[in-house]
Amino acid sequence: MTPARRRDRRVYTASHPVLFALMAGARRTPLRRLGSRIIVSGHDEVRAVLTDVPLDRTDDRTTGGAIRRHEGEGALFDQSGDEHRASRRSLAARLDSRGVAALRPRWATVLDDAVALLRAGGQLDVCRLADEVSGRTTAALLDLDLASGEHAELARAARRTASDAAAAELPSWRRAAYRDHLAEAFGGRVDPLGKMLALAAVTTTYAAIPRAVAWVADEGWWDDCRDAQRRAVLVGELLRVLAPTPLLPRVAASPATVGGRRVTPDDQLLLMVRHAVDAHRRDPSVDDPAPAAVSRLVFGAGPHACPGAGLARAQLDDVLAALSDVRPRVVRSRADRRAALPAWRELVVVAR
Ligand code: HEM
């Protein structure tokens, strides 16, 4: 096991031990029944559930049902058909390639400051950098006019809200009463769709960017980050191996067949995205990347596939390009035991 993979494993073993044990036990079979749960680990089977099986998006045992319960109706994950298509259309211009290009200046200054700090011999906590990047991006997406200190506060409030919700939904020892920290901090300024967008953008950025920076720093891949083409391949590979949303809970709306097995609405389908993209055994490689059809699955598939994929790739690409100038190394890493998704709480780097 490479030092990068060994370090990254700690975000699972320290912060999501139950999830890690569940995943480790199920990775060899594409489909495995555990009581009323079916663990789906095969690539074709996970894709088939997302694209071919009619799903009940409002069931309490799914992401959509959990979001509906906490945030109210109309937050994409819980929608279907025409209603869902209309919500996606209302988002499209903000997240397509022109939308992403318009958002880029929001995080560019944050990256300039981070590089300046490292050049001056300072220590940079990449988790705080991720909060600043996602806080600014989210404020722009939601049209919130915030003062400079409030961006990170928006990100923290979104993370804490998602963390409380996840403790109730995911296989975990931790139990927390749900609290809407976002509403407490920002009052009625965020509607259910905006709130869900904030949670999706902030939690995934906080999970992905620090873990990606740690992996690149541990492998010493900063030269790859200086070349735009190689960097783009590396970004795809890092997102595949980090699989920031490693497990998607879903429920079929009616009986269906997946991988030759019958599933019914009584079963909770635990889609192990991490295994479906081979993240657990195939390291990132710029020279021999996994096929794009495989790595794209980290963003889901079918009508609900992640609309923020282009944004997530652009942000990681920009972070790696900026940091490659100073080739940082990791001096301290601490897993976040409360985060909704496997993540570092502190990932401190210094210039080499
Ligand atoms: C590395 C970062 C990210 C990963 C791995 C990721 C992954 C996912 C996955 C797996 C889904 C479920 C897809 C399905 O059910 O088929 C999803 C949905 C979604 N994501 Fe992301 N995401 C990321 C970043 C973002 C960002 C930055 C945003 C917003 C700016 C975002 C917004 C959404 C929304 C709104 C949905 C719900 C889509 C729907 O139900 O129609 N995501 N994402």
Average pLDDT value?
91
Largest sheet: 4 strands, mixed
Shape, please? Answer: globular
The CATH first-level class comes to: Mainly Alpha
Q: What is the SS-derived class?
A: alpha+beta
- The count of DSSP E runs of length 2 or more, i.e. the number of strands, is 9
Strand order in space, largest sheet: 1-2-7-4
Compute the number of structural domains: 1
Report the oligomer: single chain
CATH topology: Cytochrome p450
User: How far apart are the first and last residues' alpha carbons, in Å?
Assistant: 24 Å
Question: How would you characterize the overall build of this protein?
Answer:
It is built from 15 helices and 9 strands. By secondary structure, the protein is α+β, with helices and mostly antiparallel strands. It has a single domain (3-350), classed as Cytochrome p450, CATH 1.10.630. Helix 10 crosses helix 12 (228-242) and helix 10 runs parallel beside helix 15. The longest helix is centred in the middle third of the chain and has 28 residues, at 192-219. The protein starts with a helix and ends with a strand. Protoporphyrin IX containing FE binds at residues 50, 76-77, 88, 95, 197, 200-201, 204, 208, 239, 244-245, 248, 298-302, 304-308, 311-312. It comes from Nocardioides plantarum.
Q: Quick summary of this structure?
A:
The protein is α+β, with helices and mostly antiparallel strands and 352 residues long. It has helices at 3-15, 17-26, 43-51, 63-71, 81-95, 97-119, 126-141, 150-169, 181-186, 192-219, 222-225, 228-242, 273-276, 292-295, 309-324, and strands spanning 31-34, 37-40, 124-125, 247-250, 256-258, 261-263, 268-272, 329-335, 344-350.
